[in-house]
Amino acid sequence: MQHTREEHGLPRFALAMGQQTLGALRDLAPIFAVIAFFQIVVLQQPFPDIANVVVGLVCVVLGLALFIQGLESGLFPLGEALAQGMARKGSATALLALAFCLGFGTTVAEPALIAVAAEAAEVAAEADFIGDSQAAQDRYALELRVVVAVAVGLAIVLGVLRILKGWPLHRLIISGYVLVMVMTLFAPEEIVGVAYDSGGVTTSTITVPLITALGVGLASAIRGRNPMLDGFGLIAFASLTPMICVLGYGMVA
Amino acid sequence: MLEFLARFGETLLYTLRDVTPIVVILVVFQVGVLRRRLPNIGGIATGSVMVLLGLALFLIGLEQALFPIGETMARQLTETAGASALADAVRWEDYWLVYLFAAAIGFATTVAEPSLIAVALKAEEVSGRAVNAWGLRIAVAVGVAVGVSLGCFRIVTGTPLPWYIVAAYIIVIVQTYLASRTIIPLAYDSGGVTTSTVTVPVVAALGLGLAANVPGRSPLIDGFGLIAFASVFPIMSVLGYAIVAERVERWRSRRERQEVES
What we know:
The complex is a heterodimer.
Chain A: H1 2-42, H2 50-89, H3 92-108, H4 111-126, H5 134-165, H6 169-186, H7 189-201, H8 207-221, H9 227-231, H10 234-252
Chain B: H1 2-33, H2 41-83, H3 96-111, H4 114-126, H5 133-157, H6 161-178, H7 184-194, H8 199-213, H9 219-222, H10 226-261
Helix pairs in contact in B: 1-2, 2-3, 2-8, 3-5, 3-8, 4-5, 4-7, 5-8, 5-10, 6-10, 7-10
């Protein structure tokens, strides 16, 4: 029994992987084309280290294919099953706790955020907000990371509440935009660039698909909610609240 | 080869640190709160391992092949563009090649962004194919291209960042009231989705290189902001695409009706 299943499973897996690899090649072709064009035609220089580049490209294509296939066969179903189970259980507290954990947990260790926080600390030191010592910079960077992670946690909580209550997304997001605009007027000039960027860097490659699956799963499990209208929008909150929180942090700190 | 394996291991650890909290949270809630066994545990385990390996391979490939070239290229382009300018007179026209490169690389990295691919697939599935995954990705990529290019123009001219972002928000708010309700959540999401693994490092390197090479700009103050451009403009382009597509559709169906009546 086990044996026959494996015989059926393996060719199907190989076929899926082959399709994913072709898809990955197509997805990555524009980058290759742009880089080759500018290197050869505009800068008129040969590729440095061509062997390394080719190995790297093969890694990128295979990696993307594996990643997408893995998402579709593993993480997406898990995220949706969990969202639907939680919706059926009907405990709003547990659902909101899950939302906060997912938002906070995935953001606090996010590599892109760590890099941006360190740069922001440097800006702050340059502008004489904080002492010039490394310790002061490290503390500032860590505080900023926690602020952003809490912001994303709250964002997912707010987003899930919105799905439960059926609030219209655009009113919430537009109020957020207005808040950002008003805060920009009062926040110190140096923090504004960092704050605006922090909205974009928080949502990593694994968080995004999972949170999307959570939203869509919830919206399809709750009666009266439309997955297209209500399922999307969590990421929008996750990229808005960090801006507000970092601007606020800049005004207070 | 040995060096490559060592770097692969390091990247794998890095990804593991990124993925572990997520998997722990999911499993704790599934088993601890729902008190239910994981459905199809084998599939989930293989899927997670594939995600881990795939992401690690993807990242190491990027570091090995794309990022060094992208960074050198951004530096060389900003240097050669600035060479003709006098030290204290920055003429924004001199940097046209930089704008072109910014648009091209913004478009290309967005098309390759794994999280955008995932969301586009989901949107296609949920909307019953009314939203086309490729169409969405192209619309988002056009938005990023325009945004990053404009962001480079801002760095060269040194105009304040809030002007652009506030203006962009106002356009988005107006578009929101013109677009059909179904597309709005997806459009708002596309802003955050685009700036991920591929786009952020390349675009950040471009901004820092440009701010370092344009006379009178400081990388620490002016280098930021490109990511903000890259996350606002896709909202605009997706909403814009939806508004235009809807108008065309309405116009076409009205004409068909007229033809039937006549």
